[in-house]
Amino acid sequence: MEYxxxxxxxxxxxxxxxxxxxxxxxxxxxxxMGDFLxxxxxxxxxxxxxxxxxxxxxxxxxxxxxxxxxxxxHAIAHIEFNAIDLAFDMxxxxxxxxxxxxxxxxxxxxxxxxxGGDEARHFGLISxxxxxxxxxxxxxxxxxxxxxxxxxxxxxxxxxxAVAPLILEARGLDVTPSMANRLRGSGDPDSxxxxxxxxxxxxxxxxxxxxxFSRICxxxxxxxxxxxxxxxxxxxxxxxxxxxxxxxxxxxxxPRAYYEPN
Length: 262
Ligand SMILES: [Fe+2]
Ligand SMILES: [Fe+2]
Fold this sequence. Notes:
By secondary structure, the protein is mostly helical. It has helices at 2-9, 13-29, 66-100, 105-132, 145-151, 157-185, 189-220, 224-235, 246-251.
């Protein structure tokens, strides 16, 4: 629990990533434990930049120019940065509830630590690539949609699982391959390769969310499909937009009844 809080309380991307890797190493060495009733603050620490602005004020992500590609990679860096916090917030905030449900809270924490470690690695890959392009994380404004979605679900584990891995990360599976192809087409295979790595890892993150969502529904004797749809209606403002990447979603074990028909 201390390791998770160490990540959430780290301000700079470097410190947050280091704390994430330390957490993963510690949980690999011995099963996570702690006072699972300690709830982390609603907002983890973050650096002063990027400035957070409304989505309409975030620069367009164009593939044709170096600046446009930097804007695209910056948006991805911001997602990965938030994803580090989201994973450790999942672990720290909800392990107590998992324990109360008599599920394995230690395995729950270990799973989300591992996801958080992946996110820190993704952030590192993208921020190194931003540096190659003469930019850096913080150079563009970004929007706060991801953390707003997290805040809306701080009191509901099933809603957090539905919105973060099963809706938002699954959406990443739909859009990432075409983004990688467009980067390749615009002569930037190095960035495309990083997106390929992220894409493969994210299938595992959706699978992890799906496993815990199913287990928790099962213990409550909830119908998972009906539960997913009612949580989506209550906690997610947008629509689930096709086309869906069935291959990746199937690999993650995500039931089609969760997302189609809409
Ligand atoms: Fe990621
Ligand atoms: Fe992820």
